[in-house]
Amino acid sequence: MKLGRWTISRVVAVTRRAIGLEGFSAPILLGAAMLGALAMACSPAGPVPSIENSDGGAGAAGLIDGSGGAGASASGGEGGAGASTPDFCPELSDGDWCDGESLVTCAGAAEVALAECHYGCDSSTQGGSHACIEPNPDACIGKVDGRWCDLTDLVHCQDDAVLWRVHCASGCESMPPGTADRCQPVPFCTAVPDPVSPAAPTESCNYMDWELSPDGFYLISRFGTSADQTTWGHGTTCGYLQGHYDYQGCRYDVHSSNCLDNDTSIPWAQGHVDYDFDDVIDTVNTHMVGDVPDPQIFYVADAQRFNCGALLRVSNPETNRCVVVYTEDGGPGSLYEGPSYGARRTLDASPAVSHYLLVEDWGWANSDLVYVEWGLPGDVPGKTCTPCQSTAAEAGTETQRTPYDPNHMQSGLDCR
């Protein structure tokens, strides 16, 4: 089901999304002086493509492990490989050497890198030129496009070729026909609650709930790109807030009628979510292991909760995959977080986010849970991360919000 989007072009303002499978966001009120400049036309888009049938890029291989990161290729890296034998390199020449199931790189009689070989280490070649055994390149021949188990790996097949490959630390689970295979769940770093929250939002301001989750867990929905006709051609809440600051020449709060300071540039805010869906999925498929080099496609809504330009770490407890995102838009509407729907606050996210995290279900009522933490120094959207290394974005941590508050531009309505 897909609910429509509408726009109110008077003092009450520019409205946001309605949730179906793609998410809902509610209005942010703007002053009358801003509306003319901020009105944007709506253009239609096609139906939402299936994530299993999306086109992709080059193949990749990596590890879904307890750290949430990709399999490490360097000694001491995040999600690192098993330890090698002490004093392994002193008697060996420079180069790569097998040490059990690990590949050790020696230089100057010292170990300089260590990689775990998930398919075994080949020591049949000359010493110093050992190598990890490569996975089966023909794993997808004869298979329908989608996700399949290949021993302990999860591979995405497309046109008889491996689009990407991730290693499942706890093994791969073959599902019944018609259902995509998946990695076996890995124990998460903190207790995962029931998806139905005992503290679901029951009140709203300007059609939205402005509070943080009581436990850092949120349901996940999806919005934006050419697959979402309700957002295509529209500006975002944080884009409007940027325009509000630019118009006033400062970080202006309409409720106090004051310039709070001259810091007016909202980090990461693009002002739109108009990206081609297939291009987004292609990009993520190419970088399913490690960082994705296109930060702008890793946006989320919920700016009324986290404020605009906030960096967040989002983890999927089912896979332990974690990625950094930024807040670009407002919403979702509190109606679709209430007891009659998901009964839990929702993180409305880019298709890039759900695809990278290997989320299976998104929307309202029956979507997967994700764990949200505040970003850390050095975080960049699209960067892989490790769950539970930061502070959960939960009630009581509001001081970590950015100073770029969407409430600053709500004329006649104060939601703080």
**Top CATH class of the largest domain:** Mainly Beta
Determine the N-to-C terminus distance.
Answer: 32 Å
Q: Biggest β-sheet: count, sense, barrel?
A: 6 strands, mixed
* Percentage of β-strand residues: 15-25%
Give the fraction of residues assigned to helices: under 10%
> What is the tally of beta strands?
19
CATH fold-level assignment of the largest domain: Barwin-like endoglucanases
Q: Measured on Cα atoms, how large is the radius of gyration?
A: 23 Å
Number of helices: 5
Q: By helix and strand content, what is the structural category?
A: mainly beta
Oligomeric grouping of the chains: single chain
CATH architecture of the largest domain: Beta Barrel
Give, in spatial order, the strands making up the sheet with the most strands.
Answer: 15-17-16-19-12-18
Low-confidence stretches: 1-82
Provide the number of structural domains. Answer: 3
Helix-strand topology string: HEEEEEEEEEEEEHEEHEHEEEHE
- Overall pLDDT: 81
Q: CATH H-level name of the largest domain... which superfamily?
A: RlpA-like domain
What does the overall shape look like? Answer: globular
